[in-house]
Amino acid sequence: MNDQTIKDAFDAIAATAVSPERVRARIDARARAHRQRRLLLAGAGFATVAAAVGVPMALGEGLGELAPPGFSPPPAEVQPVRVRAVSLMYAPTWLPDGVAERFRAVRFTTVNFTALGGSRSWYPEGSPYSVQVPEGSVTFGIGEQAGEGETAEPVKIGSADGTMWVTDTAFVQWQPAGGPWMTVSVYGTGDDASIALRVARSVAATTATALVTMTSPVTPPGYDDGTALFEVYPTSGGGAQSLTFTSSDGRSAYQLSTSPPESGEQFKAVTRNGLTVYLPGEPADAVGGGVPLTDEQTTAILAAANATAPDLSWVG
Amino acid sequence: MTFEEFLAARLAALLRYATVLACDPHLAEDIVQEVLARAQPRWERIAAADAPEAYVKRMIINELASWRRRKASRVVPLSHEALETVTAPDSDRQAELGERDAMIRRIAQLPVKQRIVIALRFYEGLSDHEIADLIGCRPATVRSHTSRALASLRANFPQDATRIGG
């Protein structure tokens, strides 16, 4: 027995690999359905940012100990929270019986708080908010175009031409003249397609707004003309909220959140008004592409960040 | 490179890579599918990195380790044919196994970390330092895994007169 014996054994094992064609088909189908559901659930918020800062755990080793939230900026520098109302733009006027709103997100320009889109989710009554969409749920998204399924068929939504396709979820997508892309998805109701169509056809412009109850006056370089996404959902502790800033070129992002980072993730945090605001740091070996914040920038952002209890009057 | 271009160019190689690490083509299929489905939504960032394939391979390693923890599965394929059927041959069949198939069996029985290190060394041709970077440990740890794995592979090979892994 020698090195060649081991190499030959590995070559023989490698030769048993399955066909890439069938794996590719499954990846395409699964990724499409998953992407569409997540897009509609949270825009580019919790899911995307969590993915951006997450890296595979090193084998047998974590990413290190949680950094203690030991940062204490001088209170005198903190501006009071200036709650802003951002338009929800459109809303369904019909929903199936037995659902209650559990999640809201609004995307807006950081320059003048102009609404760009957002996402709202209704779960079955009694179901708490979770990233995993439970059966019997309806989600309405604005400003994001989900990729169509291969079996998409044309539908009419008012005067607009739209499409509908069904995977494990029914999707209806359309763009009214001069308006943003909109998508309704319905999952696990037993009658997803017809409910999705009816919800979509009930959508109308609304004057309702979402209250952004977190502020971050410090703008790092590259974020001057960027966008922000505010997300809020009810929790047993009174509600969670996050504010995600995306740079002007769309390649960099950072998130302030009242939810603690996952174990092993580096972060800084500050507590004000009884709320702790966390700013996760990007691990040194995370995938590149964006420009990570410097230590000085994260300190400055947290020194000026502030939040107050979120508005949850909309929770069903 | 777009995600589609990456799949077209590297999916077959990634499947072989995962199969070698897992010693199970069906588990490898599940792991590669899982990893790529997770990578696709953030492909723009992954592709902007210096070596997207290395990143995906690292994801495969970590997914394999976590998959093993979750499922506590222990698949012990015994030969090329057994890798297809994932069933243990009877004692008569074992006796017929050649040296290569005996080696496959020993590789498959290695603890997952030792098998990963051995696969990266002999199939991928990586150095101790490269393996350490990939799996996130010290080179000394790699050498320790390698030493133990080679000792296990040598076991019960009475004809072994050649130093392996040297």
Write the layout of secondary structure elements.
The complex is a heterodimer of chains A (about 325) and B (about 170).
Chain A: H1 3-14, H2 20-42, H3 46-53, E1 84-87, E2 90-92, E3 99-109, E4 115-124, E5 137-142, E6 153-157, E7 160-166, E8 169-174, E9 182-187, H4 192-201, E10 203-205, E11 209-212, E12 214-215, E13 227-233, E14 240-246, E15 253-257, E16 267-272, E17 275-280, H5 295-304, E18 306-307
Antiparallel strand pairs in A: 1-11, 2-10, 3-4, 3-13, 4-5, 5-9, 6-7, 7-8, 8-9, 12-18, 13-14, 14-15, 16-17
Chain B: H1 3-22, H2 25-39, H3 43-48, H4 52-71, H5 80-85, H6 91-96, H7 99-109, H8 112-122, H9 128-135, H10 139-154
Helix pairs in contact in B: 1-2, 1-4, 2-4, 8-10, 9-10
Your description of this structure?
The complex is a heterodimer of chains A (316) and B (166). Chain A has 316 residues and is an alpha+beta fold. Chain A folds into two domains: 65-81 and 211-307, no CATH class; 94-209, Protein Transport Mog1p, Chain A (3-Layer(aba) Sandwich). Chain A has helices at residues 3-14, 20-42, 46-53, 192-201, 295-304; strands spanning 84-87, 90-92, 99-109, 115-124, 137-142, 153-157, 160-166, 169-174, 182-187, 203-205, 209-212, 214-215, 227-233, 240-246, 253-257, 267-272, 275-280, 306-307. In chain A, a hairpin with a 7-residue loop joins β8 and β9. The longest helix of chain A has 23 residues, at 20-42. Chain A starts with a helix and ends in a 9-residue tail after the last strand. Residues 38-76 and 283-289 of chain A have low confidence and may be disordered. Chain B has 166 residues and is mainly α. Chain B folds into two domains: 3-71; 80-154, Arc Repressor Mutant, subunit A. Helix content of chain B is 72%, strand content 0%. Chain B is built from ten helices and no strands. Chain B has helices at residues 3-22, 25-39, 43-48, 52-71, 80-85, 91-96, 99-109, 112-122, 128-135, 139-154. In chain B, α1 packs antiparallel against α2, α2 (25-39) packs across α4 (52-71) and α9 (128-135) packs across α10 (139-154). Chains A and B meet through α1, α2 and α3 of A and α1, α2, α3, α4 and α5 of B. Chain A: Keywords: Membrane, Transmembrane, Transmembrane helix. Chain A: The chain crosses the membrane at residues 39-59. Chain B: Residues 11-72 form the RNA polymerase sigma-70 region domain. Chain B: Residues 101-153 form the RNA polymerase sigma factor 70 region 4 type domain. Chain B: Keywords: DNA-binding, Sigma factor, Transcription, Transcription regulation.
